[in-house]
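Protocol step 6 of 9: fold each sequence in the batch and record its structure tokens directly after the sequence line. For illustration, a two-sequence batch is reproduced in full.

Sequence one:
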Amino acid sequence: MRSISMLFFLHFRRIQTAPCVFLFFVFFCLVVNF
């Protein structure tokens, strides 16, 4: 699970899209934790 989140983070960081993507990533992390 953590490896998948790391891949997502690296992928989004490489793209450097809008801040909403970062918010989506944080939301995804929260869902994974719960």
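Sequence two, same batch, same settings:
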Amino acid sequence: MFKLRSVTGSLVKTVNFRNLISTEPSSLLFTRLVNCKSLNHFSTDSSLSKQPNVSKNKRNKETLFIDSNVQRILQKITGYNEERIFSNKPVSGYKPPKYLFLTDEELEITHKRALEEGKKNLQMPPVMEPWEDKDYILANEPEFSNFDYCNLVITDLSQGFTDRSRLIAVREPNGILRRARWDERYRMNQTYFPVPGRQVTIPKMFEPEHLEPVLNRFDYLFVLDRACIQFEPDDPRYIEIVTKTYDHINANKKFNLLRSTRHFGPMAFHLAFEGKIDALLQDMIKRELLDDAASLIQLYYIINPNEKRKPVDFSAANNIEIIKIYLSTECKERYLVETALRTYQEIMAAREDQPRMSGHG
């Protein structure tokens, strides 16, 4: 089953294609308008799937992000704070807590279930390259020129297709039949197969003049969670919004607001990819998270390979040695990180001396 959707400005016309063919005298013309032969070729064309928008000489974010070592590091440094993971969320329909009497065995089973649920809540949004629109012409038929004054969008509503593989084509007023662009696919999919919580029109909060005040209130989780619902992960608008949010967090050093959330890993990946880990590294040292600090440096080295860099054995070197190696070679904010590390070492030394002083007294 196809549906024809005609869109121009605020004008929207939707027509059931089967009914149109059977009831209109110009059914032959409409049949040719959708050009079934071209659409059949289009629906089986494997190139419909989006390809990463990267050159051969450019680092591929998608490939790097799904690397097993990168994923392991990101999951490790995200942390697992149950109070934060299972904290109350501002949602409608409040459900009161349930209190149960459990045996020790039942309590252990319940705790394991909660652990698995917590891990699901920490599943990171994918990091992808932005989609790239290239018009793919299916047919150019001038005889249909000026048939209508707006584009006709043809959408296959058959079951068994994903939003990315679904057949969607556009007949332009000049007679050209082409694949739908990504923003057109986005709107048609949301029209016929709506995602809960997603709007067809972009919410005002994502406009720059409205987004900035939200970020200045440090409502980062609200912005990132809402962006995940509204956009696909390779939507350029999504990438722009989350990048702006990560940079705002980095500038204000509010990293702890994302710890033990699904967004901490992508944020750390972004900072490592852009070579801006120093503020996060300083924060980890201040919080005495030296394992995480060493892992962050390892992540930076994986994402930014350098043939001139001296190899580092992360399994053999201790955390302080790894940080000092980074400090001496690639750190951009050396004074800040060095000061944080020196303060940490002084605190550790004072803690070691305290029991000896107490025993001596």
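Proceed to step 7 once all outputs are recorded. Observation for sequence two: The first strand starts at residue 2 and ends at 8.
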